[in-house]
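quick q for whoever's on today - can somebody do inverse folding on this one?? i tried earlier but teh output was garbage lol. tokens:
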């Protein structure tokens, strides 16, 4: 049964009638450009064919009543009296709050949620939930759907309601993804450029089976180190610093902060080079840049882990793999590999066997296709 069918049947079982709307929003993988988004830089993600789905019908009052099939849990809140709490419902409350903060009138609804985006694997399950929730409010209300504005709503919900200082990348690609393409995002101007994936290649997501809690991780510490480096260099953000300037103006930066800055500055350059390689349909060049990105994330930004390093090392040695790197915030979760189409099956079997032997962890391997961003589907 597809996730779409699952939420529709779940809605019928819970509310005794067909839903009035079905909405979805995808997770994402980031091909390259890690920890550059909150530095005003460039990222190159793609929306994936794994999504959060909500089946719903509007209500006549200002209540939101939701059941999640994945957790078998229910919750509700009143739009006029939003109060912070804990758990999964905070993402939905945060979106409601951010929509109202943006001056939009939102209506109540009741719905059922399900997702096949793995949680805490670095595939942006939270952004998928936020954008699906925004789509649900859109279906129950009268405001216009603007993908970029809705991405900013999702980011505001996560930053200011949930309390996680993410950049705009996850929500923006979940809102604006394009089938068959990655999206080069300028995180300062929010300019978007869809770039075709290399011919004859596939993106394979390599879930290490290890998880990290983003709020409790060193994510916020890295963000502060980047701000300190930019301030020292007299820049608004590290996006404004090129490798040559960093190499000459680094005096006075402590060694750790310098390494953090070096990753961001070189990662921005790699991301632009990767987009250009894709425009040339140069898969080997893209793969090499992915390899270099992982080494920088491991050694300079120090957000990899033993499990991620083991998975990437396994992938990089296998026939047909053009490049591999960790993806997401780090400290656990998933890596990705760029693999020749004809080698995907062999690669999947071999990398799983290699990783299991190296770590004794149980991995999950997903072949992902680039999908469309958040959308509304017919409930029929």
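ok took a stab at it. sequence:
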């Amino acid at each position: 049964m597809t996730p779409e069918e699952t939420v529709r049947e779940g809605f019928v079982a819970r509310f005794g009638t067909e839903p009035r709307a079905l909405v979805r929003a995808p997770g994402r993988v980031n091909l390259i450009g890690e920890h550059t988004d909150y530095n005003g830089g460039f990222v190159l993600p793609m929306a994936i064919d794994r999504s959060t789905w909500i089946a719903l019908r509007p209500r006549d009052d200002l209540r939101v009543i939701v059941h999640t099939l994945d957790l078998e849990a229910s919750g509700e809140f009143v739009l006029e009296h939003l109060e912070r709490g804990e758990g999964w419902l905070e993402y939905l409350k945060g979106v409601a709050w951010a929509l109202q903060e943006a001056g939009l009138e939102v209506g109540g609804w009741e719905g059922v949620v399900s997702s096949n985006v793995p949680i805490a694997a670095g595939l942006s399950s939270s952004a998928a939930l936020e954008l699906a929730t925004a789509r649900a409010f859109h279906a129950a209300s009268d405001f216009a759907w603007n993908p970029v504005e809705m991405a900013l709503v999702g980011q505001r919900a996560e930053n200011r309601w949930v309390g996680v200082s993410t950049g705009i990348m996850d929500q923006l690609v979940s809102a604006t993804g394009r089938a068959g393409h990655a999206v080069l995002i300028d995180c300062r101007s929010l300019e978007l450029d869809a770039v075709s994936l290399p011919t004859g290649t596939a993106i394979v997501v390599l879930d290490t089976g290890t998880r990290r809690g983003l709020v409790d991780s060193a994510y916020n510490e890295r963000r502060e180190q980047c701000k300190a480096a930019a301030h020292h260099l007299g820049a608004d953000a590290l996006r404004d610093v090129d490798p040559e300037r960093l190499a000459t103006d680094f005096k006075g930066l402590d060694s750790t902060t310098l390494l953090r800055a070096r990753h961001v500055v070189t990662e921005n350059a790699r991301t632009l080079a990767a987009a250009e390689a894709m425009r040339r349909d140069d898969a080997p060049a893209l793969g090499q840049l992915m390899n270099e990105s992982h080494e920088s994330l491991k050694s300079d930004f120090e957000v990899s882990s033993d499990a991620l390093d083991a998975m990437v090392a396994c992938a990089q040695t296998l026939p047909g793999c053009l490049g591999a790197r960790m993806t997401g915030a780090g400290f656990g979760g998933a890596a990705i590999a760029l693999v020749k189409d004809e080698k995907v099956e062999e690669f999947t079997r071999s990398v799983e066997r290699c990783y299991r032997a190296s770590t004794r962890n149980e991995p999950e391997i997903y072949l992902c296709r680039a999908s469309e961003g958040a959308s509304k589907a017919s409930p029929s």
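fwiw The radius of gyration is 21 Å. also The CA atoms of residues 206 and 252 lie 39 Å apart. so keep that in mind when u check it
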